[in-house]
Amino acid sequence: MTPLRSSRSRRGYNFAYLDEHTKRMIRRSILKAVAVPGYQVPFASREMPLPFGWGTGGIQVTASVLGPDDVLKVIDQGADDTTNAVSIRAFFARTTNVRTTEKTSEATVIQTRHRIPETPLIEGQILIYQVPIPEPLRWLEPREAETRKMHALEEYGSMHVQLYEDIAKYGHISTSYDYPVIVNGRYLMRPSPIPKFDNPKMHRNPALQLFGAGREKRIYAVPPYTDVKSLDFEDYPFEIQRWEENCEICGADDTFLDEIVTDDQGGRMYVCSDSDYCAERTAAAGKIPSEAAE
Amino acid sequence: MTARDENPILRVSSLTKNYGKIAGCRDVSLDIWPGEVLGIVGESGSGKTTLLNCISARLEPTMGTVEFQTRTEGMVDLYKMSEASRRMLMRTDWGFVHQSPRDGLRMSVSAGGNIGERLMAVGDRHYGEIREAASDWLEKVEFDLGRIDHMPSTFSGGMQQRLQIARNLVNGPRLVFMDEPTGGLDVSVQARLLDLLRALVSELKLSVVIVTHDLAVARLLADRLMVMRRGEVVETGLTDQVLDDPQHPYTQLLVSSVLQP
After folding, report:
1. Torsion of CA A174, A179, A185, A186, to 10 degrees
2. CB A130 within 8 A of CB A93
3. pLDDT single digits (tens) B13-59
4. Which of B49, B60, B4 is nearest to B209 (CA)?
5. Spatial distance between the Cα atoms of A179 and A193, rounded to a whole number of angstroms
């Protein structure tokens, strides 16, 4: 194996931090995950230079698929400028020298925490999710051996108990993030804590979607154009969140909005959580963001 | 008792379960007929629970076979079917009432959700219908409907046990296993539960295997009794016959040691 050393990587470190053998091991898991959509493939998760829970699964997957010509975008809660996104982007910029971007359309690899970009993804792009708890059946069944058996035998009926409890308690399905889905008509999957607003975007998406859970040592995938169906009841169909407000910066009425408290007098504004999408819309309308906000 | 069908619903032949060198139960054969309640009595450690676990597909026996009369394929050996169909059977045609409701209920899920789970597990996806079935069953086990959304932990022991029974019976099983269903309840609650069980069993024409050390429970519920001692069946017969005219010395001891109030 020829290591991707060179002037492009930082001295003393291999390209993208992980050594080539580790990357190869992770790529094998990714291939298996792609071959069996939604199935959780175990992998030998490595210690990363940041704690579990900060995106180590996603980072290892990114490190394994990233090549010198890729363009990387990292988002955290939809935004490119939040702590997690900034640190991970800087990490890869230093260890690979690949070009980074904030524009969804320019990126070839996007690592994300908690959101799918509003700009539709296209063929050839890879979306990598950071996953805290990969096992959708965990709340029902604490034993790992048993949950694996339930996956093998497709015993997913009891998952609806969670939705039943929501309706009994609140009158509607109140689960609003990490909403369970069935992938390719077979495996039950946790889409990581993205809002259920983003669930429909996973369905038949042209991009490759990879999921990495570092602490739990699992990788799973949704290949391009794969069916992803959110669980629901016949009389309580799946619905996404809606807002009465529009984005106060760009005016969008079809995006996921963050509520931002602006003062201690009860003032608040709603803005797009996807900062790149919002900025692009503002630029297209010929405004600069700060003016638009006023 | 209702007229017997051609075949037993469950047939156990020379079943033995060893734990290493210790025999849990030895060479047990029995038939359970549709609509029949079989009581298994004996002291602690006599192998009652081992036998119950073996015949309810929860513990693989060392030797012997357990066959079940399936709806479509006739008599099938439980331990030769695929695990998928065995687990399916446990969710549909069978029920299992545990001694402690904590083992049989989801304590973090409301009463309605607990009953509805079995329906959802076999593919029911209509909230309204699930809710209605849950309410029906709560009524049948004498629950106040206002408590349908309460957590099992807020219920008394007797209520939890009734909830567990409802959860097991909601999708019309044909065979129900019960492990000391009245253990741990006080006498008046026990009496009420037994009353309820007796009514449900005769109304639904259930076949039941009930394990108990309480001869009073056995007398009330069981049509037929099996007395076990040290892993072996020492006496079997109609309940009244066994209790009123015990033949085996151990059964005589058992019957005579019941306290008379």
Report:
1. -120
2. no
3. 999 999 999 889 999 999 999 999 999 998 888 999 999 999 999 99
4. B49
5. 8
Query: Residue B247, SS3?
Result: coil
- Positions of A annotated as catalytic residues are 38, 247, 250, 272, 278
Token pair, residue A209, equals 């979607």
pTM of the model: 0.89
B123 touches A at CB < 8 Å: yes
pLDDT at res. A16: 93
Please list every residue in chain A whose beta carbon sits closer than 8 Å to the beta carbon of residue B84. Answer: 153
Would you call B58 helix, strand, or coil by DSSP?
coil
ipTM: 0.87
What are the extents of the domains in chain B? Answer: 1-93+175-182+208-261, 95-172
User: Tell me, what amino acid is at A83?
Assistant: T
Going by the DSSP 8-state scheme, the letter that residue B4 receives in this structure is P
Q: Does B58 touch chain A (CB under 8 A)?
A: no
Full 3-state SS string of chain A:
CCCCCCCCCCCCCECCECCHHHHHHHHHHHHHHHHCCCCCEECCCCCCCCCCCCCHHHHHHHHHHCCCCCEEEEEECCECCCHHHHHHHHHHHHHHCCEECCCCCCCCEEEEECCCCCCCCCCCCEEEEECCCCCCCCCCCCCHHHHHHHHHCCCCHHHHHHHHHHHHHHCCCCCCECCCEEECCCEEECCCCCEHHHHHHHCCCCCEEEEEECCCCEEEEECCCCCEEECCCCCCCCCCCCCCCCCCCCCCCCCCEEEEECCCCCCEEEEECCHHHHHHHHHHCCCCHHHHHC
- Could you give the 3-state DSSP secondary structure of residue B26? strand
Does the beta carbon of A169 lie under 8 angstroms from any beta carbon of chain B? Answer: yes
Output the CATH code of domain B1-93+175-182+208-261: 3.40.50.300
**Which residues of B fall within a CB distance of 8 Å from A230?**
none
Please say whether the beta carbons of B108 and B151 come within 8 A: yes
Identify the H or E element spanning B157: helix B157-169
pLDDT of residue B3: 45
Q: Are B85 and B73 in contact (CB under 8 A)?
A: no
A40: closest CA of chain B, how far (Å)? 20
CB A128 within 8 Å of CB A111: yes
CA A188 to mean position of chain CA atoms: 17
β-strand A71-76 against B22-32: which pairing, if any? unpaired
Chain B contact present for A47, CB below 8 A: no
A91, burial (CB in 10 Å: exposed 0-12, middle 13-18, buried 19+): buried
Q: Cβ–Cβ of B110/A153 closer than 8 Å? A: no
Per-residue pLDDT tens over the stretch A74-129: 999 999 999 999 999 999 999 999 999 999 999 999 999 999 999 999 999 999 99
